[in-house]
Amino acid sequence: MLSTGSRIVLRSTVPPGTARRVAAELNERFPVASLPEFLREGSAVADVGDPDRIVLGADEAATAREVLTLYAGTSPPVVVTDPTSAELTKLAANAFLAMKTSYAHMVAELAERVGADYPAVRSWTSAPVTSTQISRPTVSTAICRLRPLIFLPASNPRVPAPTVSAALTEAESMTPALGAA
């Protein structure tokens, strides 16, 4: 049973808005925070006690301070935001990792088709300069990033053009929305 002064912290991957819906269901009697976990495959147990980052969504500063005391003695980067943004951050991070995995498979297949050394390609495309930043969604960044998708099939008939075409079509469909950013 929850007593006065209790706080509820959601650790699961949940749809954005879940913490606020839970708080509403409880008639706002208890603060509800979102603290999504970012566990790596093969090191989940270690990651719980020593996370590589903390994204905490809390509407009350006191709740945020209290939850962060659980991580005293660790020094990961900490972001405190609202619960909905924390929940969306977790989903976006998972989607980004899935996209990177799919992309890696596509590049490995392409390397095999054109006779390139995939481990070498992977090591340089994964260098910190390219992997630590996510571009802002603008038309100019979309065009710059799409250029290789146009040139690859034109330069080599062994490049899987349908995959590239699908990526171009998808990116092109997003361009009007990007222009508003």
Automatic annotation (TrEMBL):
Domain (UDP-glucose/GDP-mannose dehydrogenase dimerisation): residue spans on this chain: 85-125
Origin: domain of life: Bacteria
Ranges for domain UDP-glucose/GDP-mannose dehydrogenase N-terminal: 4-64
Leader sequence residues: none
Pfam families: UDPG_MGDP_dh, UDPG_MGDP_dh_N
GO molecular function: NAD binding; oxidoreductase activity, acting on the CH-OH group of donors, NAD or NADP as acceptor
Family: Belongs to the UDP-glucose/GDP-mannose dehydrogenase family.
Protein's name in the database: UDP-glucose/GDP-mannose dehydrogenase family protein
Organism: Actinopolyspora erythraea
